[in-house]
Amino acid sequence: MAVEAVVPPRPAAAKEVSPGRAWWIEPALTVVCYSAFVIYATWSVFDQVNVVFAPYVSPFFSTWLGFGLIKVPIFGILIPILAVIPLGLRGSCYYYRKSYFRSFFWDPPACAIQELKRGRYYGETRFPWVLNNYHRYFLLLSLVVLLFLWADVVRAFAFHGSFFIGLGSLVMLVNVVLLSLYTFTCHSFRYLMGGRIDRFSRVPAGRIWQRIVILLNRANPRHGAWAWYSMFSVALTDVYIRLLMAGVIHEPRVIF
Ligand code: FES
Fold first, then answer.
1. Is 1 domain-assigned?
2. Is residue 7 part of a domain?
């Protein structure tokens, strides 16, 4: 006897799946937050004002090459060029891809809900989506950027040769910790740390690599959360330093 598989029709609307479910809230909020961040970041980077208030520097302007001895400011045209690195990392990030395909293109907007329109699927073989294949390279470049951000944070705890703590030092520290969590929970970073290893027992220091991968596997499910927190913290750190520059706020500072 022939057995015929019964495929239920795909629901066309959220109501058919879960009556009363406000599935549109998440994509709508995502559109608002991502758009606000991109507009603010673009304005900040092209504003022609270097967001620096000694000893703080905005994460959009992590500009000092060298560590105290040789300082080479690379303002101007290089800032927008360097901004491509974090932008490329986030734009090609697996979490952001899911997020912006859902919210901006409704492709589909939520689980079990029909796409806005069905076209031919080309995967990531065409511009601009083909750029997503370069995620691992954006990650490598971002690791270098992260080093500079950490160097900026170390400097934020020193003022006129003395150890110093200001609210801004702590704001910058929290920001770079969140950025590090976002970067180190990246899927490509996990692969970089041990994804290619078939048997840990057969490679040098295999036990260490195994431990690192286990740790990253545990942390990875929170990648989406770190993506959000770090996005907000970057913008808020920049806002905070701008407010200090404008004299709108005066922060508590302790110099030892
Ligand atoms: S930064 Fe999100 S997956 Fe790599």
1. no
2. no
93 ligand 1 Cβ < 6 A: yes
Q: Residue 4 domain-assigned? A: no
Neighbouring residues of 146: CB distance < 8 A, sequence distance ≥ 6? 176, 179, 180, 183
Decide which of 109 and 74 is more confident: 109
Give the pLDDT confidence of 4-36 residue by residue, as tens digits. 555 555 555 555 555 566 788 888 999 999 999
User: How many domains does the chain fold into?
Assistant: 1
Residue 14 lies in a domain: no
Q: According to the model, what pLDDT value does residue 95 have?
A: 92
Residue 41 beta carbon below 6 angstroms from any ligand 1 atom: no
Whole-model pTM?
0.84
Identify the residue whose C-alpha is closest to ligand 1 atom 2: 93
Q: What is the mean pLDDT of residues 90-115?
A: 84
Contacts 24+ apart (CB under 8 A), 120-126: none
Domain enclosing residue 190, as ranges: 24-255
pLDDT at 63: 59
Question: Tokens 């990650």 correspond to what residue?
Answer: 139
> How far apart, in whole angstroms, are the C-alpha atoms of residue 61 and residue 47?
11
Ligand 1 contacts CB of residue 186 (under 6 A):
yes
